[in-house]
Specification:
Elements: H1 14-29, H2 33-40, H3 44-52, H4 59-69, H5 74-84, H6 94-102, E1 105-110, H7 121-130, H8 135-148, E2 160-165, H9 166-170, H10 176-189, E3 195-200, E4 213-218, E5 224-229, E6 234-237, H11 240-256, H12 260-273
Parallel strand pairs: 1-2, 2-3
Antiparallel strand pairs: 1-4, 4-5, 5-6
Amino acid sequence: MPERRVVTGRSQEPRRRFAEELRRLRTAKGDSLRQLGERLGWDWSLFGKMEKGETLGGPEVVQALDHYYGTPGLLLALWELARADKTQFREQYRQYMALEAEAVSLWHFAVSVLPGLLQTPGYARELLAAGGLKGAELEKQVEARMGRRELLEGEDAPPFRAILSEAALLTRLRDEGAWRAQLEYLLEVSEQPNVTVHVLPFSAGLYGLDSTDVWFLRLPRGHTVAYTENAHRGELIEEGGFVERLQRAYDAVRDMAMSPAESRKFILCMLEEVPCDPST
């Protein structure tokens, strides 16, 4: 479906409109990204990512931009709409995404693909393209997936535990530079206080989730739901008995996985095996 446009000619999709307004205001001010970063005291690359739709940024930086551009409350209002927008996700995932946004803690097991919350744009793009997406829809879904990562940012970010099967880490991207960036991001995010990353090595042998990619979300009311998925569909599971069985299987897998420190060393060793860009 083509992007809807009305009188202003600007996007009516909240995330894209937010990015468009950021670019428009900076251009009108005559600042480069570097100049903007110097004047506001943030790394200029953050503003570049915000203008590309790769991240929304936090409320503090948006408020600072509102003050700098003399648009009190405008950008913050657009930021709130973009953050709450679930229409960016494909319809079959929207119910899960709504629950993910309100979860007070999350944990995940990855069989063969890294979880969306830990993916870089390069990884997400190659993965989604392999699933058949292309063109504008591909870019829209990459932007949406990058927006999910903001869930793990900020002082109030929920705790997140990810167990990555060794198979997920041995399935490289075709682009070595993008693969290096993905491994570097895994190491970076694993150092956040609310994020715990484990690697389940092949030497652990067979395990109860060997064909199940699963998410668990603990909701504000104390209720936990599970979401299992493959490359073609996902299933939200709310029935308590089934969720509890999946949790027991997850706990058994966690007991077989490497510690967070051992897992970081494992990922670092993998990173050291990826050829560096000759230009660097």
